[in-house]
Amino acid sequence: MIEARHLRVLRAVATTGSFSAAGRELGCTQPAVSQQMKALEASVGTPLLVRAGREMRLTQAGEALVRHASGILAGLTAAEEEVAAIAGLRAGRVRLVSFPSGSSTLVPTALAALRAAHPGTRVSLEEAEPPRSVELLREGDCDLALAFRYEGAAVAEDWDDLVVRPLLADRLVALVPERHRLARAESVAIGELAQEPWIAGCPRCRGQLVQVCEGAGFTPRIDFATDDYPAVVGLVGAGLGVAVLPQLAVESVRPRGARVVRLEPEVRRQIVALTLPDLAQVPTVAATLEQLARAARGVGRS
Amino acid sequence: MIEARHLRVLRAVATTGSFSAAGRELGCTQPAVSQQMKALEASVGTPLLVRAGREMRLTQAGEALVRHASGILAGLTAAEEEVAAIAGLRAGRVRLVSFPSGSSTLVPTALAALRAAHPGTRVSLEEAEPPRSVELLREGDCDLALAFRYEGAAVAEDWDDLVVRPLLADRLVALVPERHRLARAESVAIGELAQEPWIAGCPRCRGQLVQVCEGAGFTPRIDFATDDYPAVVGLVGAGLGVAVLPQLAVESVRPRGARVVRLEPEVRRQIVALTLPDLAQVPTVAATLEQLARAARGVGRS
DNA sequence: GCCGCCCCCAAGAAGCGCTTATGCTCGATC
DNA sequence: GATCGAGCATAAGCGCTTCTTGGGGGCGGC
């Protein structure tokens, strides 16, 4: 087996014409060069260099090897370059999955910052929510998943084998029509909305809503359900019912005809980034994760 | 510095999908594979493989490396192939230099045998005699030189740094016109030809002739000098003088009108092959040398 | 004739790579 | 739900490789 290191040395010897000069060029001693050349000759089974007086000449086999060396070493260098570009965030792609419309502020901010910091990187964005997003992660179809979990949820997801990075604690707020009796209230307890018609969000949020309401002693009467947050806001604004939404979801929607009222006691969902332990070491993934965390801090502060 | 060995292992891991299988394919243990992959990841500074549950997936950097690997490894294999062909005498060239017309039997026999044994090898043949041929050797313009030296010559060549392989001891014979008084003699002493007109060979042979004659107490009267042996024979055959020639040179010429008489005391020249110590290790050179020696044994036997 | 350059050789020390042995995780099976 | 098999990680031990240092010899230039 010819080693690339040997080819590098052979080429240096061929160009400089001496072992000593090659050693200087490669940053090692002359005996090291001499030994490597001996090893290479032994491994190919034929002399490669002829010591004729002072000068060092290549044999035909040596010439053949040097001829191939440039291509091989160029290939190695190209490979190193490409990998270094990925490692150095000058290239590389991240496949990001986020829950639908949940990341309307976080993701754009993070991706904008990522692009500004590392213009060579590319991000693909898809929408899915757990458990689908976790499945995508585990099957290798994405690198990073944005998800959320409700604090104190009934069934905890099995994320034990994943890297779970909390990004943001997002509190729930009540949304009531602006003519509603509680529209001007400082805050509202969920029980006070027991008799209202409800407009629910996505299936998972709906489950959480039911759980919270049952904790307060009633079962909500759900008239509408949609996972489209602007639609929920619109329905509330039209006076068709009340809703409970994550604050982050409300923030990106203009609440026409609806009012946001703080919910007491506080119910929060935690927005997290999920990835595989190994993927967390991949530079592009780590950088994206970092920008998501930074974006989350920005949202939390505002 | 990426090592080719690592690429080979990475490729095996990528194709087999597991470290254990790669180890089996490569004939080493699983920890060896594991360690090499760790070393490779460390050397490029980014993960290359993602351990997701049971299966082993490539990261983007890993894919890039595998993509380059095939080309690099193919280059290495091609280089090994080419060198192995030279080492295995399936290819390769020898640049042979021989003294003019001195090798009319030796060289053709040897080269024919070489070609028969190793059809892929190529031999280039040039004519020169020492010191020119030695110069060509030292300057790297030829690989193997056929030369000769007279035993007991006045000036010994400085062949100390060369490989000198004696091939043949070639005795000198006298050539006299067939009507000459000595034409039927069993043998002739050089002194008996003191009064004859001489036909001399090449410059070096002429020098040797003069030296031998002076050793016998006379200076030959040289009427003609040519390094063309058939011409010498022709001149003698035409009765224009006598000559002393190497037996080998006479053998390849039909002695029309001339007779060969053994010379006493015996004067011999030694035909040798010369090469550089390092070049003697080159398979093609060694093989050619061997065939020359074998051809010489054949000539000596006949 | 001396000096400098360059190569080879030998010995010692450091580093590297492989193997064996062991523990752990995961997935399939009963 | 427990067991079993497969596969990876880790650690220890060993041998090999490879480097450096130091010394010797040869060749060319001043």
TrEMBL record, chains A, B:
Per the record, the domain of life is Bacteria
Keyword Transcription annotated: yes
Keyword Repressor annotated: no
The record, for InterPro entries, names: LysR_HTH_N, LysR_subst-bd, WH-like_DNA-bd_sf, WH_DNA-bd_sf
Ranges that cross the membrane: none
Tell me which GO cellular component terms the UniProt record holds. protein-DNA complex
* UniProt-listed PROSITE patterns: HTH_LYSR
Which keywords are on file for this protein? DNA-binding, Transcription, Transcription regulation
Q: Where is the HTH lysR-type domain?
A: 2-59
MF terms from GO for this chain are: DNA binding; DNA-binding transcription factor activity
Q: Name one Pfam family in it.
A: HTH_1
Concerning CDD domains, the annotation shows:
PBP2_LTTR_like_6
The family assignment reads: Belongs to the LysR transcriptional regulatory family.
Name of the protein described by the UniProt record:
LysR family transcriptional regulator
Origin organism is Streptomyces lucensis JCM 4490
